Amino acid sequence: MLENIHQEILIEILKRLPVRSLLKFRCVSKSWNSLISSSTFISSQVSHSTGPNSSIKSYSFVKQKSVPDCKERFILYNDGDDDEDFTIHRELDEFPYKDQRYLEVIGSCKGLICLSDSRYARFYVWNPIVKKCLTIFSLDSSFVVGFGYDYKKNDYKVVKILHQPEKTKMSIEVKIYEVSTSSWRSKTVANHGFVTFCFGDRKRTYLNGVYHWLARIPGKDGSSSGKLTLASFDLGIEVFKETKIPDELAEDNENHLSLVVCGDSLALIQHLSWKSDDFSWSLGYYENCCIWVLNEYGWSKRRSFGVHDYGGLVRVLSFRRNGKILLQIKNSDLASCDPETQKVTCHGGYPYRSYFKVHDYVESLVLLGSPV
Is the pLDDT higher at 354 or at 240? Predict the structure, then answer.
């Protein structure tokens, strides 16, 4: 009976199923294994899983690092439109290089997670669902990195910006790794006056084929202490463009800003009124924050809020799919805040101070046919 189903209809049915089910269904027959493992079906499954009417469940990928022992955990949290409680789906303990002392999450895109060592000399492109991981080596010294999807080539790219701070140049050298070719290449692209790219994983993000970094343009004296702006690199046409940010943010301390994704828009979080603990700067908190969102008409200031009843705000981490804002509050709890009612829901704490990095995640079959 299965053999009588037209292949186009079969693809439409299968691409709507959970990835774990698809992995099991490869054992049904050789033809099903061949179909599910094919690049055509994988592309179709990814397009559906990341589309607006997807039936595939969504998650948040969270890296949690505890301060005392520097232990790192990778966790998937349930985070669909109907998931009011931010509950743990499962811990991802299958990462093959988890014994490394420090791993930084560069980005998450269409089921792939890109991580790096502390020197950005070794990258890992990992699909935890199909249990495949690419290891990418790079000898170029750079602390400005990115990862995302090239819609023109249907490919995934790791990017390194070889840019010398405090030296304004007409061009920037970019190193690009393409997963499809398993190789690096160099490209010189026009500069838009950027003199420095801000360092840190909260000052960069990926959205819809473009990677964004907070950067600085020259000051009046030509120094690197000018205003903040956004440097955006299109992974398809491989060019930079500048997106100016409001003066209120452009003149702020970059350490108080976070660049995140809000739905299909970029957002900047301005954390306000830092209060430091008497014994340790790392135990400080913010009294409140302000949210700015970029839309087709420019930046709009959405709202300000605080979590005073919960000891203060450590950092806004992400925007959840149900519209709530994921926070880290002072006692290291993860919490969600309803932006309309400002009601805060705590999701549990940890015995020690922790740092979190959060990315949207959806399961996919990418890398299934890879030999790694």
Answer: 240
User: Which region among 60-64, 255-259, 266-270, 365-369 has the lowest average model confidence (pLDDT)?
Assistant: 365-369
| List of residues 6+ apart from 181 with CB closer than 8 A | none
Helices 7-14 & 30-37 angle (0-180, nearest 10): 60
State the Cα–Cα distance between residues 204 and 101, nearest whole angstrom: 22
Residue 25 has, within 13 A of its CA and on its CB side, a CA count of: 19
Residue type, 336: S
pTM of the model: 0.90
In 3D, which of 303, 349, 355 has the Cα closest to residue 86?
Answer: 349
Long-range contacts, 174-177 (Cβ 8 Å, 24+): 174/233, 174/238, 175/138, 175/140, 175/142, 176/238, 177/123, 177/136, 177/138
- Is 219 strand, coil or helix? coil
pLDDT of 1 higher than 50: no
The residues pairing with 289 across neighbouring beta strands, listed in sequence order, are 271, 305
Residue 94 token pair? 């299958």
Beta bridge partners of 261: 266
Cα–Cα distance for residue pair 62/328, rounded to 1 Å: 12
Residues 71-84, mean pLDDT to the nearest whole number: 85
70: Cβ contacts below 8 Å, ≥ 6 apart: 101, 102
Cβ contact 230:243 at 8 Å: yes
Torsion of CA 48, 63, 206, 144, to 10 degrees: -150
CA 281 to chain centre: 27
Instruction: Give the number of C-alpha atoms closer than 13 A to the C-alpha of residue 333, restricted to the C-beta side.
Output: 17
What is the Rg, in whole angstroms, of the alpha carbon atoms belonging to the chain?
Answer: 21
Confidence at 304, pLDDT banded by 50, 70, 90: confident
Helix (H, G, I), strand (E, B) or coil at 250: helix
pLDDT score at 195 = 77
* Helical (H) or strand (E) element with 214: strand 210-216
Residue pointed to by tokens 């079959």: 365
Average pLDDT, the chain: 86
3-state secondary structure of 240: strand
Report the alpha-carbon distance of residue 211 to residue 202 in Å, rounded: 13
Contact 161, 144 (CB under 8 A): yes
